[in-house]
């Protein structure tokens, strides 16, 4: 009798899960964007949200919740109900770097969130305004050695992968640059274009429009391979800094305990979208590289990078209160 009851309960749960997946989503889905409008994360988030709404007939609404290097938006998503109607566009900055930088972070990305769908990855890029005296990365290094701490570089904020890419380059080149953190990419971009800071370290999507317009001069990308969006821009490794490799990734996460059938359904829709030539072209056009993964593959990437960046951050000595 007990065995029959257990079998019936199992069948009922399986039926409920299937029914849940069949009816999902029955209302709008909120996609938290943990950075201000206009930056690389915002651009990709709105691209995914708009295309999902268009192709799947779902209603996906991007909602900016910026601050503290993206950790405010991630924390909000981690606290949300695991209903499938709250997700966040996370990236390496706030998912695997911030936990080792911030002393009192309110979330553990490996426990409080579940990886849903990887979207894209991108190298970091070092740029200066087109009128700058720096024509090459070697010009920057030579000037920094002649005048330590005189050259400034802006970033989207303390504790981001982009900020640390600048710090790692300083160490590799054995130079001193003065870091100027901003609240998001747009503010840093305005100041480098105005000449208030000498350089900007940025994601490629954040800088792409200004590079295309001729207002920014790209000096180098930080990945081992050149960006397919900017094939003429050399890598830092090519310029003499062997094995230099810093890139970032973007992907969707939901609160832990979100039903697996919903995670699988969202993953399938995003991967279907990433397989279209239109979406590939759109992402590459923004300076990123589309890359689909299963939830399990994305979860493994998260955990591996989480441990890898623990050592990188500790070696840098950087902390944020």
TrEMBL record:
Keywords, sorted A to Z: Signal
The entry's protein name is: Tripartite tricarboxylate transporter substrate binding protein
Signal peptide from the UniProt entry: 1-21
Family matches, as CDD domains: PBP2_Bug27
Looking up InterPro entries in the UniProt record yields: BUG, Bug_dom1
Q: Does the keyword Signal apply?
A: yes
The yes or no answer to whether the keyword Nucleotidyltransferase is present is no
- Family affiliation: Belongs to the UPF0065 (bug) family.
State the superkingdom. Answer: Bacteria
- One Pfam family here: TctC
């Amino acid at each position: 009798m007990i065995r029959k009851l257990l079998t019936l309960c199992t069948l009922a749960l399986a039926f409920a899960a299937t029914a849940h997946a069949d009816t999902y989503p029955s209302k709008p889905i909120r996609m938290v964007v943990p950075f201000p409008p206009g930056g690389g994360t915002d651009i990709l988030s709105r691209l995914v949200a708009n295309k999902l709404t268009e192709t799947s007939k779902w209603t996906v609404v991007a909602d900016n919740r910026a601050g503290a290097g993206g950790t405010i938006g991630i924390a909000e998503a981690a606290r949300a109900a695991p209903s499938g109607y709250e997700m966040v566009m996370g990236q390496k900055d706030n998912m695997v770097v911030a936990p080792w930088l911030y002393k009192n972070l309110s979330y553990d990305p490996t426990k409080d969130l579940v990886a849903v769908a990887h979207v894209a990855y991108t190298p970091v890029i070092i740029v200066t305004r087109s009128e700058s005296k720096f024509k090459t990365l070697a010009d920057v290094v030579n000037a920094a050695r002649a005048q330590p701490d005189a050259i400034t570089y802006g970033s989207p904020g303390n504790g981001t992968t982009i900020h640390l890419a600048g710090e790692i380059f300083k160490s590799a080149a054995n130079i001193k640059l003065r870091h100027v953190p901003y609240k998001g990419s747009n503010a840093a971009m305005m100041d480098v274009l105005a000449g208030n800071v000498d350089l900007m370290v940025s994601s490629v999507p954040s800088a792409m429009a200004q590079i295309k317009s001729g207002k920014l001069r790209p000096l180098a990308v930080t990945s081992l391979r050149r960006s397919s969006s900017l094939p003429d821009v050399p890598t830092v490794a090519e310029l003499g800094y062997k094995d230099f490799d810093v890139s970032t990734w973007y992907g969707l996460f939901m609160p832990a305990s979100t039903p697996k059938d919903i995670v699988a359904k969202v993953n399938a829709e995003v991967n279907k979208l990433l397989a279209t030539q239109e979406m590939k072209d759109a992402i590459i056009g923004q300076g990123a590289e589309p890359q689909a993964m299963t939830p399990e593959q994305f979860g493994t990437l998260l955990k591996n990078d989480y441990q890898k960046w623990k050592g990188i951050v500790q070696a840098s000595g950087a902390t944020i209160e």
